[in-house]
Structure of Malate dehydrogenase:
Amino acid sequence: MKTPVRVAITGAAGQISYSLIFRVAAGDMLGKDQPVILQLLEIPPAMEALQGVVMELNDCAFPLVHGIITSDDPNVAFKDADFALLVGSRPRGPGMERSDLLKANGAIFTVQGKALNDNASKDVKVLVVGNPANTNCLIAMKNAPDLNPRNFTAMMRLDHNRSMSQIATKTDSHSTKVEKMVVWGNHSATQFPDIANATVDGAPVKDAVDNDWYVNEFIPTVQQRGAAIIKARGASSAASAASAAIDHMRDWALGSDGRWVSMGVFSKGNSYSIDEDLIYALPITCENGEWKEVTGLEIGEFQQKMMNATEEELKGEKEAVIDLI
Ligand code: NAX
């Protein structure tokens, strides 16, 4: 049996975590042979609800769970963490401007960045899910100067998975047959799901679908999918977001087997002329616990325009929190 690893999850009493924690505990993220110690963070008003989650976790008698720690102190929850999934964040309240939301979350992620810096394993793998995920990730990263910036990533995998599913349905194939999909930029409505390199059953997707569908249906459907789910379900994506977080961390930790995935990563040194001080989603492969940018892709005029738009939004978000980073 392997030595247990420590997995910290924030927003642990929230709806995404209600799917996520149980899948981590079942071994879906790190493998069926990897024991875990769960370190769950919440804010004081949600600690009672979190105790209910812990009771259910205990009732599952998961063989891989070797300990459960709960806390409302990030210094406790991140102690020696090998993995940190930052799910908890402040939702947008009535009348709240986007800049207010950025600032309210900024306050959370400065504290959590410092707590990771001071307490987590130096190799901690951090995934930020809580929105605005890319900018929250940038804030956490900047507040953790002793950790490698490459340890910090933002979740774009839900957008990536949504794209693959839409293509599979359109081409009457299966999502496992879709490869080399890229979602660039911000996890927001400016994200750019790009099929220029994508293949389905080994053949170019752009030959299998018409350009009008791609530009006027596919891209807006993926960009607006979160809103469509809220409209249908009366609540935001939860199980699919948890599943994407599992996919992201599993591939990062255990490798993507040469498959391209989309991850929001620190843009320093990127090969696509993107501003070097953002968390921007790029095409990535993972091997030996490291992520690597897919380089050398040709960027056409339409792609450049779409990539610039999402970059501009990220620059604007960064400006709104500049005093926190
Ligand atoms: P919920 O409101 O159900 O849960 C959030 C939990 O976080 C609450 O229990 C709250 O008490 C806790 N929390 C708030 N501040 C905290 C802090 N400082 N420390 C620890 N816990 C804290 O939201 P849920 O539906 O679970 O969504 C969580 C976040 O994921 C939201 O910001 C949401 O917008 C974001 N999403 C991100 C996605 C992505 O692809 N990156 C997709 C899904 C989701 O929309």
